[in-house]
Design goal:
The chain is of the alpha/beta class. Helix content is 43%, strand content 19%. The protein has helices at residues 43-65, 84-101, 110-116, 161-171, 179-186, 209-225, 229-260, 275-288, 304-317; strands spanning 3-8, 13-20, 23-31, 74-80, 105-109, 129-134, 139-146, 149-155, 264-268, 291-293.
């Protein structure tokens, strides 16, 4: 029964988790509020706060899991993709811990881990399945044939869906992080109040740059006519934007599912916490007879539990890495 300590530090969450025989015993996430004043993540500040958070996060993860340092059989860590300075903190800690305890190191691809979050708990998809992985930096449709046999069959050609939400929040003057605030306003708005264009991109790829421009001009023109336009219509604007982003994502996902003949469909990544997208997938799944899978909220955003479950399956395969490993800001899928 391998006990694995997992470290996640790809962006601005410092997370540590412990799993035993594939069961998550603890999952600690330390958020960084320092970035709120800047309207986005500042890489240098993120890496410095990771240094402050990493030891307390690991200590709490071990405490919550009721295991000691001597019980750990391997250390799994996010190697990439992510912010290089942030990754360096997690990679360095994992290497030092493994060296001190003379135990194996396991590198994990952050995006693959988001997909494998679906193997936490009992409700698991069956291979092959499709996973729509959506975050602030990535938008992908992944054909998952096995735990580490994954193929990206569609991805964004420019901006990610999460980035489009973040940009919209800035246009609307909402504080950082804006994605959850758009979600909150959207719940009280009319999603059909305003119409935004859907990009006509062939295949399964996405594009959100044009949508961002459309939203920018829409707000600019309406505010010019009515300075109180945003304040008076914030809920409807957010609901309409959220619906358009969700329909862009789900229309491509439906097309991929039909072409590949797959009915097990999963959602992952930070944007999978969005209420409109979650409900849209569930409704589409009921209509088309899909089995749909969405992680618990704590496993949607960046977290070490998903690194732990990925590390567990790599442990079973004996896929370890040496102490000369370095972080990769861009890591091959």
């Amino acid at each position: 029964m391998p006990v694995i300590l997992a470290i996640e530090s790809s962006c601005d969450e410092t997370s540590a988790a412990v799993c035993a025989d594939g069961n998550i015993l603890s999952n600690i996430i330390a958020n960084q509020t320092i970035h709120e004043a800047y309207g986005g993540v500042v890489p240098e500040l993120a890496s410095r706060v990771h240094q402050q958070n990493i030891v307390p996060a690991v200590q709490q993860a071990l405490l919550n899991a009721k295991v000691s340092k001597n019980d750990i059989d391997a250390v799994a860590f996010t190697r990439g993709p992510g912010l290089l300075g942030s990754l360096l903190v997690g990679v360095s800690f994992a290497k030092a811990f493994a060296l001190a305890k003379n135990i194996p190191l396991i590198e994990v691809n952050h995006m693959q881990a988001h997909v494998l979050a679906h193997f936490i708990g009992d409700n698991k998809p069956a291979f092959p399945f499709l996973c729509l992985t959506v975050s602030g930096g990535h938008t992908q449709i992944v054909l998952v044939k096995d735990y580490f046999d994954m193929e990206i069959i569609g991805q964004t050609l420019d901006d990610a869906a999460g980035e489009a939400m973040d940009k919209t929040s800035k246009i609307l003057g909402l504080p950082y992080p804006g994605g959850p605030l758009i979600d909150r306003h959207a719940r009280n708005g009319n999603p059909d109040a305003y119409k935004f264009p859907e990009p006509q991109i062939p295949g399964f790829d996405f594009s959100f740059s044009g949508l961002k421009t459309s939203i920018l001009y829409f707000i600019r023109d309406n505010v010019a006519a009515n300075p109180n336009f945003i304040e008076e219509n914030i809920n409807d604007i957010c609901a309409s934007v959220e619906k358009r982003i969700a329909t862009i994502l789900l229309n491509k996902l439906r097309k991929a599912a039909e072409q590949y003949g797959i009915t097990d469909i999963a959602l992952a990544g930070g944007v999978s916490a969005n209420t409109g997208l979650r409900q849209g997938l569930q409704q589409l799944g009921e209509k088309l007879g899909w089995r749909t899978f969405i992680p618990k909220m704590e496993y949607c955003t960046d977290n070490a539990a998903m690194i732990a479950i990925a590390g567990y399956h790599k442990y079973l395969k004996g896929e370890f890495i040496g102490q000369d490993v370095a972080p990769l800001a861009r890591m091959p899928f």
